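stage 2 :: seqdesign
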C-alpha cells in the first residue's frame, strides 16, 4: 500500500510541482551539498551509494530514483528511499552486508539473476544511517562506469546534458493523472530548462575498478573546499 501511495499519488504530485525523476542514487555531505550518481544498471550506482553509507559523513537521499527541481536557490534534490537489488558480489564487498550474501555460492556472485532484494530500512540500519529530511542542493553529478583502470574526468555541459537525458524518467508533458481532489497543477518548469541548468553543475565521469577507489574518491569529496576533480589514482 505504501508503494502504491508513493508511486501513484505522492511522486506524480511532486512531478506536477516541478520535480523531475532521474534514474540515480543521491546523498549529501554535512553542509547539504548534494551528489547525484547517475547511470544504468551495472554502472556502479549502488556501489557508490553503499560506499557513501560506509563513510558515515554523508546523509542519504535515494538509492535508485531522485527527484530534482529548479528553484531560485539552485537545483533542489529530494530523496525517494526504495529497496535495493544487490548482486551477492556487491554485498560481499562490505563487512556490514557480507552476511546477506552467504547463501549464494561464490560462482553466482555476479550472475544477474542472483540479486538479493534488500529493504532500504535494513540497508540504512546496517550503517546506522537515516534518510535525509532537510534541504539538499545539487552541487555535483557523477557518472560511474566499471572498468579496468581508475579514471576521473570533468565533463563539459554538452556531455553532461546528453548523459542526463538518457536517465530522465519524468515525461516532459502534463501527466495523465486523476485530479478529483484538485491537488495537481500544471508544471511551470520544462525538462529543457531543468537539463540546461543541470548541465552546468560540476560533473565527472568516474571509471572505477574497486570499492577502495570509490572510498578514496568520496572521502576527498566530503571536504567543503573541494571544487575540482580528485587528482589521486588507485594506490
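stage 2 :: out
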Amino acid at each position: 500500500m505504501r508503494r502504491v501511495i508513493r508511486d501513484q499519488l505522492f511522486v506524480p504530485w511532486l512531478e506536477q510541482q516541478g520535480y523531475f525523476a532521474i534514474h540515480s542514487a543521491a546523498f549529501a555531505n554535512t553542509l547539504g551539498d548534494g551528489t547525484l550518481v547517475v547511470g544504468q544498471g551495472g554502472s556502479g550506482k549502488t556501489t557508490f551509494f553503499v560506499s557513501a553509507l560506509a563513510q558515515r559523513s554523508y546523509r542519504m537521499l535515494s538509492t535508485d530514483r531522485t527527484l530534482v527541481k529548479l528553484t531560485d536557490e539552485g537545483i533542489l534534490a529530494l530523496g525517494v528511499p526504495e529497496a535495493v537489488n544487490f548482486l551477492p558480489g556487491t554485498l560481499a564487498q562490505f563487512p556490514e552486508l557480507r552476511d546477506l550474501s552467504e547463501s549464494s555460492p561464490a560462482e553466482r556472485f555476479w550472475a544477474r539473476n542472483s540479486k538479493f532484494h534488500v529493504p532500504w530500512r535494513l540497508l540504512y540500519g546496517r550503517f546506522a544511517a537515516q534518510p535525509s529530511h532537510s534541504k539538499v542542493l545539487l552541487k555535483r553529478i557523477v557518472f560511474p562506469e566499471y572498468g579496468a583502470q581508475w579514471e576521473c574526468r570533468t565533463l563539459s555541459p554538452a556531455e553532461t546534458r546528453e548523459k542526463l537525458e538518457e536517465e530522465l524518467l519524468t515525461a516532459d508533458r502534463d501527466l495523465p493523472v486523476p485530479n478529483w481532489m484538485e491537488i495537481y497543477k500544471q508544471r511551470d518548469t520544462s525538462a529543457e530548462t531543468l537539463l540546461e541548468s543541470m548541465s552546468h553543475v560540476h560533473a565527472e565521469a568516474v571509471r572505477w575498478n574497486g570499492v577502495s577507489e570509490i572510498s578514496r574518491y568520496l572521502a576527498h569529496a566530503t571536504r567543503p573546499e573541494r571544487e575540482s576533480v580528485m587528482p589521486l589514482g588507485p594506490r
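stage 3 :: structure notes
- Residues 225-235 have pLDDT under 50 and may be disordered.
- The CA atoms of residues 91 and 97 lie 5 Å apart.
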